[in-house]
Amino acid sequence: MKKVIFSALMLFAFIFNAQAQDDDKMNADFNKWQARFRVVTVIPSPGDNLDGLDVDLSTSYIPEIDITYFFTRNIAAELILGTTKHEVEVGNSLATTDLGHVWLLPPTLNLQYHFYAGDFKPYIGAGINYTFFYEIDEGAVAGMEYDDAFGVSFQAGLDYNLDDKWFLNLDIKKLLLSTDVNVDTGAGVLPVEVDINPLMVGIGVGRKF
């Protein structure tokens, strides 16, 4: 009986040690750096910011680059870089006013958790954003001034491995972002808080390093 127990314990120790070595190898066998190039659709979701008047920002299509660093096999940080231009209008069903256009530069840093399912690697993330507004065109008003602003980012996506280095990517992000805008009407300055809250849907290709 003692021999049977001893043999079972030795077998258990061997299996446990082999599993631990496999886990260590799996945890060590990952690329710490990767980069993606995406084509992204940026869809703002503004609300009623001027007492019943709708602020409308146009949808934009942009290239985007991101760089990701993996702290562990599952946990990573992603820096997202891109810039986008939006036409701006305000009005209702009766009339609209052209407020020109504005460029947004919204660098975003997300903390991610990656899952593994064969060649598929879904992930979720959340982080912070700081948006710069520049190259402002005033349109039909005398002047427009946008305040740079912080925002919050939420993200979900999926990588699909083509080989050991290259992969395809589908990514969806939502930014909760608003900015204070001073509109110079010519008769005075009108302060407005504008919600932008863009939904960003991207598809692209990536490489591991």
TrEMBL record:
GO terms for biological process: transmembrane transport. Keywords: Signal. The keyword Mitochondrion does not apply. GO terms for cellular component: outer membrane. Residues 1-20 form the signal peptide. PANTHER family: OUTER MEMBRANE PROTEIN W (PTHR36920:SF1), PTHR36920. This is OmpW family protein. It comes from Bizionia saleffrena.
